[in-house]
Design a protein that fits this description.
The protein is α/β, with parallel strands linked by helices and 341 residues long. The chain is built from twelve helices and twelve strands. Strands 6-7-8-3-9-10-12-11 form an eight-stranded mixed sheet, with helices on both faces. Strands 2-1-4-5 form a four-stranded antiparallel sheet. It is globular and about 70 Å long. The chain starts with a strand and ends in an 8-residue tail after the last helix.
Length: 341
Amino acid sequence: MTDAVLEINNLRTHFFTDSGEIPAVDGVSLHVKKGEIVGIVGESGCGKSVTSLSIMQLIPNPPGKIVDGEINFHGENLVKASDKRMKKIRGNEIAMIFQEPMTSLNPLFTIGNQLIEGIRNHQKMSKKQARSKAIQLLQQVGLPRAEEVVDEYPHQLSGGMRQRIMIAMAMSCNPELIIADEPTTALDVTIQAQILDLIRQLNEVNQTAVLLITHDLGVVAEMCSRVIVMYAGQVVEEGTVREILKDPQHPYTKGLIQSLPKIHEKDQKLYSIPGTVPRPKLGRVGCRFAPRCEFAFDHCWQENPELYAIENGSHRRSRCFLYDGEHGKDVIHSGKTDIGS
């Protein structure tokens, strides 16, 4: 896909532990275009954050390792990139906003020192020029008294302020792609809205591509143009925000949306998907969602489903045998499922 800033093909990231080899990301493919905000959604442990760390080549080795696949950034396969090349790319061409800013910021250095280091690593600036730019960035992300904050330490700031600093760091070199991994976790609702507005402004003003990782469907509805739904290390559905939220096609996506509370219904009992996420393991046969799926039929336990195109010529896809012309048509025609209705 020539117009894609980022294109991932069949990515597999495994962890080698005392209890065996664990496929945390198992055959993920996705793409992000210039100026696009793409959401990755799924419950904890589905492989969202490992996918983002794989893109940045930040998987700790050992125990983790990318065992297969490609991560193409403007056609360059980052899986084969040297450490020296990745140091040039990180923060400069691809930036990341981490989930917990307190552990991402170094508690021993001032905010200014950490911003200035990143700026000077990638841009030819004097220390004075870099400090001036650091103050300007802090002002751009809405921090009051930026001239004072630049000389303060992370522990002196609130969670919302620290997250703004992480966004300032991401903005510092005008990257083409920003990966935001749960950027509003542990923040109150008002601050969440402000952080999301900052990311949206960055996307609109600079046409920066954004890969937004979250478990919050409300954030997805507000921010994203396309959504990728992950389950147990795999992509199970892909489509536009409207398609996914209005007409979910995969049983897992349907369950996620059903579990959202409905404002206009009183005395409602919240829906939850029965069962638990299976423990990742090599050589698993059958659909990973089958043990929790109300629509599962015999073939779901015998073979691993592919990502099937739901409509000809459409980019909408679902990893479900219900959309396999050979095995799913009999189940759909039998009236045993009302999925997507």
